[in-house]
UniProtKB/TrEMBL annotation:
The lineage of its organism: Eukaryota, Metazoa, Chordata, Craniata, Vertebrata. InterPro entries: CDP-OH_P_trans, CDP-OH_PTrfase_TM_dom, CDP_ALCOHOL_P_TRANSF_CS, CDP_diag_ino_3_P_euk. This is CDP-diacylglycerol--inositol 3-phosphatidyltransferase. It comes from Equus asinus (Donkey). The keyword DNA-binding does not apply. GO terms for cellular component: Golgi apparatus; membrane.
Length: 222
């Protein structure tokens, strides 16, 4: 007697996870290259620094388009921003020693405000530091809900520090009788100042949120 052997049923194919390259990783590499060239090659360093910052905006759009937004990605994005700005400010402190205190205060304010704001957002249950209570501070509401405003403030702030770095080496090409880098500093300085004011608001708002959470926890224990 012969046995009839039927071919086994094909198992359903499962989608294998794919790993797509993300611009966020490239901007980290560009930032490190920028740090390497900062002591000696201002044009190369500034080009890689600005390219790294430009990829930040592109990375957010790519993550949403590819449905690859993650908590890790959001955290990595914020850390890259903070570390990049901080490393540039360290170089500025070396180039402008008389302004070292201002650069130290700027670094401290930037890191402290974002860290406390992120921590308070997580404690309140937000998935991202950019998801805020719309009934809160009106300045932060505009800052986080208006993409043009967010881009102008962040880009203007980074461009100000980058131009200040370049200005130490040259005034840049002449535009009339004024150097391009000097003119750029005049334009971006108010933006950088406004960004610092928003960081102060960040810090105060986040501190109040944490205090409110502590008060709510104490009320529950009574």
């Amino acid at each position: 007697m012969t046995l009839c052997c039927f071919p086994p049923k094909a198992l359903p194919k499962t989608r294998q996870p794919t790993c797509r390259p993300r611009p966020g990783y490239a901007r980290i590499v560009f930032a490190i290259i920028s740090f390497y060239f900062m002591p000696c090659c201002p044009l190369t360093a500034s080009s890689f620094y600005l390219l790294s910052g430009l990829l930040d905006a592109f990375d957010g759009h790519a993550a949403r388009a590819l449905n690859q937004g993650t908590r890790f990605g959001a955290m990595l994005d914020m850390l890259t921003d903070r570390c990049s700005t901080m490393c540039l400010l360290v170089n500025l402190a070396l180039l402008y020693p008389r302004a070292t205190l201002l650069f130290q205060l700027s670094m401290s304010l930037d890191v402290a405000s974002h860290w406390l704001h992120l921590h308070s957002s997580v404690a309140r249950g937000s998935e991202s530091h950019k998801m805020i209570d719309l009934s809160g501070n009106p300045v932060l509401r505009i800052y986080y809900t208006s993409r043009p405003a967010l881009f102008i403030l962040c880009a203007g702030n980074e461009l100000f520090y980058c131009l200040l770095y370049l200005f130490n080496f040259s005034e840049g090409p002449l535009v009339g009788s004024v150097g391009l880098f000097r003119m750029g500093l005049w334009i971006t300085a108010p933006i950088a100042l406004l960004k610092s004011v928003i960081s102060v608001i960040h810090l105060i708002t986040a501190a109040r949120n944490m205090a409110a959470l502590d008060a709510a926890d104490r009320a529950k224990k009574k």
